[in-house]
Amino acid sequence: MLTDLSSDDRLRLVRFVCSFAWADLTVNDAERAFVQDLVRRLGLSIPEAEEVEGWLAHPPRPESIDPAEIPLEHRQVFLDTVLALLGADGALDAAEAESFNLLSQILR
Questions:
Q1: Residues 6+ apart with CB under 8 A from 4
Q2: What's the pTM?
Q3: Distance in angstroms (rounded) separating the CA atoms of residues 77 and 75
Q4: Tens digits of per-residue pLDDT, 37-64?
Q5: What is the CB neighbour count within 10 angstroms for residue 83?
Q6: CA 58 to CA 36: how far, in whole Å?
Q7: H helices then E strands: how many in the chain?
């Protein structure tokens, strides 16, 4: 559940979601709206929300995305949220599916 995440894990979740929004090399309006809604639901601070806007403009650095840092008890929340993002625009392309399958395998 999103409310069970620590402050660090909330930001980590959005970083992962943003990286998946970039899987097809573009962030469309539906994905952007999903991320912005997620920021509101998570109650991120203004500086954190500004950082997220940066990730929507340019993908998060690859070294900042480490699935091993996702706590075991929150891995399903991360997978569910990433999958929801991928469905936000009604289309799942091959790059997005491949990235999600890889994350799913790593986290399970």
A1: 73, 74, 77
A2: 0.92
A3: 5
A4: 999 999 999 999 999 999 999 999 999 9
A5: 16
A6: 15
A7: 5, 0
Q: What is the pLDDT of residues 1-34, one digit of tens each?
A: 888 899 999 999 999 999 999 988 999 999 999 9
Quick one: tokens of 22? 């970039």
Report which of 47, 35, 36, 34 is spatially closest to residue 7, judged by C-alpha positions. 47
Query: In residues, how long is the chain?
Result: 108
Average confidence score pLDDT of the chain: 94
Residue 63's alpha-carbon distances to 24, 43, 56, 67, 68, in angstroms, are 19, 25, 17, 11, 12
Start-end of H helices in 22-108: 29-42, 46-57, 75-87, 94-107
Within 8 A by CB and 6+ apart from 94, the residues are none
Percent residues over pLDDT 70 in the chain? 100
- Sorted by sequence, the CB contacts under 8 Å of residue 50 that are 6+ apart come out as none
pLDDT of 71 > 90? The answer is yes
